[in-house]
Amino acid sequence: xxxxxFPPWVNTFTLMVLAGxxxxxxxxxxxxxxxxxxxxxxxGYAPKQPVPFSHKLHAGELKMDCRYCHNTVDQAAxxxxxxxxxxxxxxxxxxxxxxAKTAIHINSIKLKxxxxxxxxxxxxxxxxxxxxxxxxxxxxxxxxxxxxxCVECHGRIDKMEKVYQSEPLSMSWCLExxxxxxxxxxxxxxxxxxxxxxxxxxxxxxxxxxxxxDEYSHDGSEIKAxxxxxxxxx
Length: 234
Fold this sequence. Notes:
Strand 1 and strand 2 form a beta hairpin. The chain has helices at 9-35, 38-41, 55-61, 66-69, 84-91, 112-120, 140-144, 150-154, 171-179, 205-216, 229-232, and strands at 95-96, 99-100. By secondary structure, it is an all-alpha fold. Helix 5 packs across helix 6. The protein is flat and about 95 Å long. 40% of the residues lie in helices and 2% in strands.
């Protein structure tokens, strides 16, 4: 009986299959590691920015309203990264009728990217910090106009010298708020007052909760946010 001998190409094919399995496993591992890396999804992510903008100074000490820079936050889905001319309103050193206006730190080396952007029209390349997955739909204006303050998702921005992601922004974290929204709401007039607490305006929590129902519910009933999958996954 003749002994069967595999043709030579089988050796090459076997090596190719093993290499594919090894490469595929390595690729999957890289995707998993990259997708769960702290700098990608975890709280505390604070990338270096081209301009060391201090929210602690501007929003905290100077009491600038969030909407001065993020001027679409109560009107559109996106909060909008401010255009360079917004920075230039204070730091551009514009000259009007021979007089310099708003010339604040116009020679600071830290603000050179701002001056360059004003001169050549190229955008400042800010690094995004709060970045939801592409399959998640989130509308800033809906939340802001329904009593949800910036602080609920972004933390005490007015105390951050360098902005970092303070909350996990996970689906379970979002659902927790949607299932129990009342304790996280506030009057529209206090939306950008990040230091506000219900004790500042109401004597009891019951008064606060009823005031929120009166302001945001058509009939004064308990407020519930949608937990339907299609709300965020469209």
